[in-house]
């Protein structure tokens, strides 16, 4: 009789542990899904802003048709539904590259850079890019925690029983990690070092040679 009581207690404990692990996995999965929805909201805002930016640029640089069309094609690809996080990251990276070329074109149009609507759009786009980066970090942190649970014992057993699987990270590609430059404000000029001084060498740099026939100054 006692042995059956022990077995029943062990079974109950195992069930409670399994339930706890399962609930933890579901909580993490829900956090991942919620974090992805936040990214999706910011990406949609980004796509809208880029569309408005293209329309504004078109009013000043309509003949830059190739660049404008490249941005809109990349935007359409990024807006396509049913993409996994990895596919979405790739699409957004291609859109960032096309947007970078558009911004480079806009640099040649002073009237465009002074347009108030254009300035407002580029400020909103900068803010949106920052929010996307923040949402991406939050999403990836939750994915990392979920994947760790799915791959480690004993939670991997429960995950396998209930079909809870790894999730994909939302990672930008290495060549796309630099943020898109959308600031058309005044830039700080870089002052070149005096002639004869090595860049970044400080006061220990070798001074320029004196003109022919002139003695170098005597150092104190």
Can you tell me the CATH topology? de novo design (two linked rop proteins)
- Which ranges are low-confidence, i.e. pLDDT below 50, for 5 or more consecutive residues? 174-214, 216-220
- Tell me the total number of β-strands: 0
Indicate the percent of residues in helices. 55-70%
Specify the CATH homologous superfamily: LemA-like domain
Name the average pLDDT. 84
Rounded to an integer in angstroms, the radius of gyration calculated over CA atoms is 29 Å
> How many angstroms separate the termini?
103 Å
| CATH second-level architecture | Up-down Bundle
Strand content: under 5%
Structural class: mainly alpha
Enumerate how many helices there are, as a single number: 6
Shape, per Cα inertia axes: rod-shaped
| Major β-sheet annotation | none
Please, how many domains? 1
Helices and strands, in N-to-C order? Answer: HHHHHH
CATH class: Mainly Alpha
Task: Tell me about this structure.
The protein is an all-alpha fold and 220 residues long. The chain has a single domain, classed as de novo design (two linked rop proteins), CATH 1.20.1440.20. The chain has six helices and no strands. It has helices spanning 2-60, 65-79, 85-106, 110-114, 116-151, 155-161. Belongs to the LemA family.
List its traits.
LemA family protein; de novo design (two linked rop proteins); membrane; 220 residues; mainly alpha
């Amino acid at each position: 009789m006692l042995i059956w009581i022990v077995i029943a207690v062990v079974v109950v404990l195992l069930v409670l542990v399994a339930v706890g692990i399962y609930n933890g996995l579901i909580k993490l999965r829900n956090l991942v899904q919620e974090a992805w929805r936040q990214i999706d909201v910011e990406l949609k805002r980004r796509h809208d802003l880029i569309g408005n930016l293209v329309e504004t640029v078109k009013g000043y640089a309509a003949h830059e048709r190739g660049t404008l069309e490249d941005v809109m094609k990349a935007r359409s690809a990024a807006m396509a539904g049913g993409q996994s996080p990895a596919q979405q990251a790739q699409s957004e990276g291609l859109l960032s590259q096309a947007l970078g070329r558009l911004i480079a074109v806009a640099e040649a149009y002073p009237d465009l850079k002074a347009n108030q609507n254009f300035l407002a759009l580029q400020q909103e786009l900068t803010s949106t890019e920052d929010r996307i980066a923040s949402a991406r970090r939050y999403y990836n942190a939750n994915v990392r925690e979920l994947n760790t649970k799915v791959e480690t014992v004993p939670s991997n057993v429960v995950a396998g029983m209930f079909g809870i699987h790894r999730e994909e990270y939302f990672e930008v590609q290495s060549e796309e990690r630099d943020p898109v430059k959308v600031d058309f404000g005044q830039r700080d000029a870089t002052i070149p070092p005096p002639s004869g001084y090595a860049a970044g060498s400080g006061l220990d740099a070798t001074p320029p040679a004196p003109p022919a026939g002139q003695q170098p100054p005597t150092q104190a």
